[in-house]
Amino acid sequence: MSVPVLLVTGFLGAGKTTFINQLLQGDHGLRIAAIVNDFGSINIDAKLLDASADGVIGLKNGCICCSLQGDLLRTLKIVLGQKPSPELIVIEASGVADPAGIVQSLMDPVLWHSARLEIVACVIDAPDVNDRVNDPLWQTQLRGSDVLCLAKTNGLPQDAIASLKARLAILGKRHVFDLGEKLPLTVLLSGGSLKPRDIDYPPLTDSRFVHLEWEREGQISMVDFQAVMTELAPNLLRAKGFLTFCDQPKGMLFQLVGQRATLVGSDRTDEGKCQLVLIGDKKNFDVEVAYSLLDRL
Ligand SMILES: Nc1nc2c(ncn2[C@@H]2O[C@H](COP(=O)(O)OP(=O)(O)OP(=O)(O)O)[C@@H](O)[C@H]2O)c(=O)[nH]1
């Protein structure tokens, strides 16, 4: 029998990993396998996904919408060969991916017999919509999806959420869910087209992003790190990493989306090691400058 595939897309930092973790922890009773695509070579998202998934496989060093299409198909075959086999496969696209490229790969007629694309869900950072609405990649991700899932609605008034849903409906998206309402998986899956589909536009090849990966053995100073990030943040779209700070007993997970940064204790850090990924727009993020600042830490 063919295993349904849920493809989760959405802009950098929209909330895809958080959403998938909620799915993995849900009481649906399904065996779910997750495939996660990190833009760089450091597999941060795979580490953040809940260990309860029936196998989390990270695909790194490229994007499954273009350079890693072959890897995606090979990985799906491995996942499908697991015993017992998964009842749902969730694929998390990287935040720079055009879902059309991934959908194209999944339309492979041989694969379709064993894994069928059920639905493409786009996670939207609700408070961020005004800043993103004219971004061509954001628009492409929206257009290539069957359902939209609004993340980060906690703290937004109900009428703001309702008007956002109405606005997205005008863009042709009838199925807009608020993730704050703890969406049942069955409801989400029922929003799909449930049949193979054609792509009616060429996938976007977006090379406007640059990223930097920085690793360091040993601890760093929190004050110095905050100073570096304060300098870099205005030119970043996304940053995430596991860090170990002097005088802190535990490693920490650092997340930056736009100008919102968080630092929380984490068990998933590698002992005594720092790993950081920064992503920005080529126009204003200077990787060399960023490296030189980080290397002073
Ligand atoms: N307040 C709040 N924060 C959220 C919510 N969802 C995600 N976040 C935060 O937003 C940041 C990014 O979340 P992720 O789930 O890693 O986003 P992502 O889309 O997987 O990010 P990339 O894959 O790196 O593009 C993290 O700091 C999350 O804790 C939410 O519903 N509410």
TrEMBL record:
Keywords: Chaperone, Hydrolase, Nucleotide-binding. InterPro entries: CobW-likC_sf (IPR036627), CobW-like_C (IPR011629), CobW/HypB/UreG_nucleotide-bd (IPR003495), P-loop_NTPase (IPR027417), Zinc-reg_GTPase_activator (IPR051316). Residues 209-297 form the CobW C-terminal domain. Pfam families: cobW (PF02492), CobW_C (PF07683). SUPFAM superfamilies: Hypothetical protein YjiA, C-terminal domain, P-loop containing nucleoside triphosphate hydrolases. SMART domains: CobW_C (SM00833). The keyword Cell cycle does not apply. GO terms for molecular function: hydrolase activity; nucleotide binding. CDD domains: CobW-like. It catalyses: GTP + H2O = GDP + phosphate + H(+). GO terms for cellular component: cytoplasm. Zinc chaperone that directly transfers zinc cofactor to target proteins, thereby activating them. Zinc is transferred from the CXCC motif in the GTPase domain to the zinc binding site in target proteins in a process requiring GTP hydrolysis. Belongs to the SIMIBI class G3E GTPase family. ZNG1 subfamily. This is G3E family GTPase.
